[in-house]
Amino acid sequence: MAIAVDVEGVTKFYGKTAALENVSFSIDAGSALGLVGPNGAGKSTLLKMLLGLMRPTRGAIYYNGQPLWPDPASAMRQVGGFVDTPRFYPYLTGRENLMMLAELTHGSARRVDEALHYVHLDGAAEQRVGGYSHGMRQRLGIAAALMKRPGLIILDEPEDGLDPARLAEMRQLLGRVRQEYGSTLIMSSHVISDIERLCDRIAVFDNGRIRYVGPVNTLGSRIPEEILWELWPVERGLRYLRNLGLDARPAGEGRIAAVWDGSLDLGQVNAALMREGLAVRTVMRRTASLESRLLAYLEDSHVDVR
Ligand code: ADP
Q1: Which of 1, 121, 131, 217 has the highest count of CB atoms within 10 angstroms of its CB?
Q2: More confident residue, 289 or 30
Q3: Quick check: CB of 207 below 6 Å from ligand 1?
Q4: What SS3 class is residue 27?
């Protein structure tokens, strides 16, 4: 059964440092939430608490209305996932590692085979985990999570360190897991396009606080488009566009990107750039990616919007 999650006023101190401050949000059963934000923002700290590995200093976490503490172990029977990289015994095979977990969680050998098959590790099941590639270990971590047929899956940057081909595989795997198991999913990721693809909602963390939590597509929706100029010289172009009041920034390879709210006439801006003696090679209009909306959002807003 999918698990609904409520996080209420959670604060976590490491010594005197607050890693999370008064974080609250709710997730409906069966939906998927993506956590994003700079390193050190508090995402892993939250995930560890959701996995019952650490207790909040203040506040509470509820799974289907039941408080996680004082007995996280019972709730964890229905929760699968890992923080950082999944850890296994390197001298045991993939199957042996999962069999040990199955014994601990009262799972069956059949579930172990099922999970190995699901993540395409059947062929490597009898190899020692010490010889597994990083991607294989990540997949074994997901298999371990799936063995419980979890109502909630928690993953901390599951794509971390994967090359593009493995990344595509991981993406597919996570999409399939969501579709077939219907579990609630909470994952952190630096791959913003994965959050866009796999999650319904997004929580933006910054400096221990949630700055935004809501649907992916309404995050910064007041920034509908951006314009990308390829021009020379970039420095002078930037200065000129900023003088026009545009939020222009270098976008690499001789390009400038600016958030476009439609208040200026693009034809007139381009004509003016050329009159200024700037060599404009190309002009492109594009919908702002979630990544740039996120950046603009984090730069713009210094208020807690919850
Ligand atoms: P993220 O996952 O977003 O990168 P973390 O949750 O790992 O962020 O870290 C949040 C803050 O807590 C950071 O300032 C980090 O340095 C600090 N922190 C994390 N783990 C510990 C720990 N075990 N001891 C002390 N400080 C920690």
Answers
A1: 121
A2: 30
A3: no
A4: strand
Residue type, 263: S
| 43-87 tens-digit pLDDT | 999 999 999 999 999 999 999 999 999 999 888 888 999 898 888
**Is the CB of residue 39 below 6 angstroms from any atom belonging to ligand 1?**
yes
Task: List the chain domain ranges.
Answer: 5-217, 225-287
CATH architecture under which domain 225-287 falls: 2-Layer Sandwich (3.30)
As a three-state string, the secondary structure of 185-237 is EEEECCCHHHHHHHCCEEEEEECCEEEEEEEHHHCCCCCCEEEEEEEECHHHH
Span from the CA of 150 to the centroid of ligand 1 (angstroms)? 27
Q: Note the pLDDT tens digit of each residue in 245-279.
A: 998 999 888 999 998 878 889 999 999 999 999 99
* Residue that the structure tokens 């597994």 belong to: 132
Q: Kindly state if the Cβ of 177 falls inside 6 Å of ligand 1.
A: no
Fold (topology level) of 5-217: Rossmann fold (3.40.50)
d(CA 197, CA 35): 13
From 10, 11, 17, 36, give the residue whose CB has the most ligand 1 atoms within 8 Å, as the site to mutate.
17
CB crowding 177-194: b at 16 or more within 10 Å, else e: bbeebebbbbbbbebbeb
Whether residue 306 is predicted with pLDDT greater than 50 in this model: the reply is no
